[in-house]
Design a protein that fits this description.
Number of helices: 22
Number of strands: 13
Strand order of the largest sheet: 6-5-4-10-11
CATH architecture of one domain: 3-Layer(aba) Sandwich
Low-confidence stretches: none
Strand content: 5-15%
Shape: globular
Radius of gyration: 28 Å
CATH topology of one domain: Rossmann fold
Length: about 575
Amino acid sequence: MKYPLDEFKNEIILNLKKTLFKYKCEIRLEIPAENMGDFAFPCFSLAPQAKKSPNEISKDAADKIEKSKWIAKAEAKGGYINFFVDDKHLISSTLTSIFKLNEKYGQLQKKDKKAIIEHTSANPNGPLHVGRARNPIIGDTIVRIFKAAGYNVESQFYLDDMGKQVAILVWGINNEDKISKDINNYYPPGSAYVSSKKNNADHQRVVFYQVSSNLMQRDDKVANEIGEIVKRSECGEHEVINLIHKAYSPVLEGIKESLNRINITVDKYVPESNFVKDKSVNSVVEKLKKSKYCSKEEGAFYLDMEPFGIQGRNTKFVFVRKDGTTLYATRDIAYHLWKAKHADLLVNILGEDHKLESKQVEIALNLMGAKIIPKVIFYSFVSLPDGKMSTRRGRVIYLDDLIDECVKRAYDEVEKRRGKELSKKKMREIAETVGIGALRYNIIKVQPEKDIVFKWEEALNFEGNAVPFIQYAHARACGILSKTINKKREFDSNTLKHDSEVKLVKQLAKFPLFIEEASSGYKPHIIASYLYETASKFNQFYRDCPVLSEKNTMLRRSRIAVVDATRIVLKNALQLLGISAPEEM
RNA sequence: GGGCCUGUAGCCUAGACUGGAUAGGGCGACAGCCUCCUAAGCUGUAGAUCGCGGGUUCGAAUCCCGCCAGGUCCGCCA
């Protein structure tokens, strides 16, 4: 797919190559500040070899740039060559491109490459909580962006069915009598964070996890029994693995439901036990044992991580226990080798607490000559104003409760504004769209590596740079279009001269560039900025350019086309964030 | 003790990888805009020693060094 701005860019690059043939340089274009042009080429790096000032270079070069159907003007300013696109040509080709491609507008050329994107991978011992809510949202957005960027994408949830966390749950479910005796010790009256009254299995069963986790710390007998479950599952005992499966399955169903509610489905759930059952983890162990960095200590095997730049109190990466069983990270290596067989690109979304483990896995994969090393997006935790969340301690806000609160709050807003005009059913529909969108947007608009302190007022803020602003722009566009009589799309780019029209259409033309940048740089949050900017420009157009009341027929039709094109772009970009675009709100 | 990440107006945030044109936005505050396509909107004002101190450079929020603060990790846990 070739987009108008690609053609403009290519023409600039060709021109610059001709003009600057004397110099050795890579031509990288920037987008200048508004009104300074559409693309800019900085001349600073050429100054040393040219022995001229950047100002002189840019002036000489700008004079030599030839005008063409794309290039309207090249201007030297402050050491930059600023290129101005031919507005008429850009407008007509952009609108044509949007109408032709419609829901596919923005998507990049198919790449014939498979990407496996692993995200969420939460322990199936309780409901998803807000502390880790960034994971599915970042993950699913990356999935959508990579699909748009032309990859063949599969999303995976690595299901931890062997570890201590899930063993604690299993013990609790099989010792219900002991749990019910202890439950009141666990939940003291008036405890602040015990909130969820939901009937879903994940909310019901997490109590077993919490109480038995507590018991385990006080009672060695319980601890031993749990340890036994872990050990037998790690040895690959089918009976125990089945018992575990029975315990967590309903919890996993609850997690899936929560994900579905925020428009997330995962293609494949991959149980960790697969790699024990199929013995692939054993071949990982055999290979690592042969490494020159491997040593043995009291029967356990470890890799020395120090030569690879790992520092700290302990630089040993143990991959086999003294009892011969493997560890989480060992199995993770087997999982990654398996993934690498089925993909050209691997992406993982992980909490920052996994940085060391991930590095160890990466080093081991390199030692084993793995073809693909995963690209990892780490995110910082969402914490509460008075500290971090913990499922074990029951000090959490569950994702489901946050979703409900967002939707409820959105309903109040709709009712306040449209209560007299709309049916309850319609308002509930809008509230669901706005509430879920607000949640996803608020999380995705911040860079993954920034810490977030969860505050209800901020999570539920519906003004300014928040999703209702964008959805409202889309609804406005739909409102105008629903009132048009002539449904045929016609436009004449000669009539679209108003500054607000030109700026808006230029913004629409940039959409594919943002998909390119978001995917190649693994930066989902820039799609959120793009949407905000687009909606904002549409609102300015709405203020300056009356559509339906415009007397000049051709101009009116052209403006309707601009509105329709904006509608398509907003919808497509919202879709990339997993947010629905309401036609009315 | 050490590693990694973060620190931009009262609050939240973009820009940092790839140094460059007056550091963009939003919330909140203040002042305006509905006889006209949904005011969940638009316009304007005030508000920033870019954590602190050095260095490299013609030029540093951006690169390097040191320090301070917060997060996170340094289990034969996951």
